[in-house]
Design a protein that fits this description.
42% of the residues lie in helices and 22% in strands. Among the domains are: 63 residues, MutS, DNA mismatch repair protein, domain I, CATH 3.40.1170; 53 residues, 5' to 3' exonuclease, C-terminal subdomain (DNA polymerase, domain 1); 144 residues, Dna Ligase, domain 1 (2-Layer Sandwich), CATH 3.30.1490.100. About 3% of the residues have low confidence. The protein has a five-stranded mixed sheet with strand order 5-6-1-7-8. Strands 9-12-10-11 form a four-stranded antiparallel sheet, covered by helices on one side. The protein has a three-stranded mixed sheet with strand order 3-2-4. Helix 7 links the parallel strand 7 and strand 8. Helix 4 runs antiparallel to helix 6 and helix 11 packs across helix 12.
Length: 385
């Protein structure tokens, strides 16, 4: 059976919320983030993007590109409030909603067609409901799978709607830049283009002799992705079996201390999500991807199940240390932390009493500050460069 998958992506979400709540900012080049030498752009309005400003860019670079930009501090509690309104719209359409972040999600509407009409009409309905309830716009991709839907939602921003039928997958994807492929990353994208593969068609039809030096064992998978092949189901948030946080580095990293610091940051991020959902984890895993795209996983149970940031960080770092001892000198392009065997935090009073050094109180304080001022407002000392 052909599935009907939607990828809904809010347009410049944080910046759009600020412009909606403060009409005087409408039409101005707005960035959301903390000003200062170490500040990073969390979101950029479409007005400031014309100057080359993008999310995750250092604030100092953004200021050079657009000296007249307006910098607004993040209000995470407000963004989550609006996000809840958006996700309420999704769940009125289908129970199969897989959130990727506060501002984007996959929806499987295959079972909603008989009641609500064809997928493009459902997408239009979602866009209209979001605008009516929040005043914001969203871009939607409609396709037979998650990969193509995600690519499609980015083709006509802002306020776009792109429909890619099964028959048109190659027609739409083939001329696109390889940079459109989700998860490719900037550095690897440059290497792929340097090898002469600039479009998804060229990547799809490339021989193994060209792909193996770039992707190793993932060569066939990357060829299939370039062809728009993706069998992954939409996994409902209510059926979530694990939480994870991962990061692809701008350059390959080999220094153990630097890798451990990055892993600690990822563990902290995953634990924050765990606590926000009121869950505990009974198994900690790390995901390791080397410079040749080989991917490894290591995991270990933790008892009793916990949401304590320090305990989970220590397990993750120990798993990484053991892997590095077996692969001395390895250069890594990606690290991730996965928390599995999730369960409700019904016994948190007991767990908190056993947490050394008042970790539960520290975690709670960190969560409260970040909720109000953003994820970068306060960090543990051992995560600083």
């Amino acid at each position: 059976m052909i599935r009907s998958i939607l990828h809904v992506d809010m347009d410049a979400f944080f910046a759009s919320v600020e412009q909606h709540d403060r009409p005087e900012l409408a039409g101005l080049p707005v960035v959301v983030g903390h000003a200062g030498a170490r500040g990073v752009v969390a979101a950029a309005s479409y007005e400031v993007r014309r100057f080359g400003v993008r999310s995750a860019m250092p604030m100092s670079t953004a200021l050079r590109l657009c000296p007249n930009m307006v910098c607004v501090p993040p209000r995470m509690a407000r963004y989550r409030e609006v996000s809840a309104q958006v996700f309420a719209v999704f769940r009125e359409i289908t129970p199969l909603v897989q959130g990727l972040s506060v501002d984007e999600a996959f929806l499987d509407v295959t079972g909603s067609v008989q009641l609500l009409g064809e997928p493009p009409a459902i997408a239009q309905r979602i866009k209209a409901e979001i605008r009516a309830r929040t005043g914001l716009s969203a871009s939607v991709g409609v396709a037979p799978n998650k990969l193509v839907a995600k690519i499609a939602s980015d083709l006509d921003k802002p306020d776009g709607l792109t429909v890619v039928s099964v028959e048109r997958v190659r027609e739409v994807l083939d001329p696109l830049s390889v940079r459109r492929l989700p998860g490719l990353g900037r550095k690897l994208g440059e290497q792929v283009e340097a090898a002469g593969l600039r479009t998804l068609r060229e990547l799809r039809t490339a021989p193994d002799a060209l792909l193996w030096p770039l992707f190793g064992r993932d060569a066939q998978r990357m060829r299939e992705r370039a062809a728009g092949i993706d069998e992954r189901p939409v996994v409902s948030d209510t059926e979530e079996k694990s939480l994870s946080a991962e990061d692809t580095f701008e350059r390959d990293l080999a220094q153990p201390a630097e890798l451990e610091r990055h892993l600690a940051r990822l563990a902290d991020k995953a634990c924050e999500r765990l606590r926000r959902k009121g869950l505990v984890s009974g198994r900690v895993g790390v995901k390791i991807r080397s410079h040749d795209f080989s991917t490894f996983t290591r995991q270990r149970g933790i008892a009793p199940p916990t949401q304590d940031g320090r305990a989970i960080r220590d397990v993750a770092q120990e798993l990484l240390r053991r892997w590095l001892a077996e692969h001395r000198g390895a250069k890594l392009r990606l690290l991730g932390v996965t928390l599995a065997e999730l369960s409700p935090a019904t016994q948190m009073g007991l767990f908190e009493q056993s947490a050394p050094g008042g970790n539960a109180r520290l975690d709670a304080a960190l969560d409260q500050v970040r909720e109000r001022f953003g994820s970068r407002a306060l960090r543990r000392g051992n995560l600083l460069d």
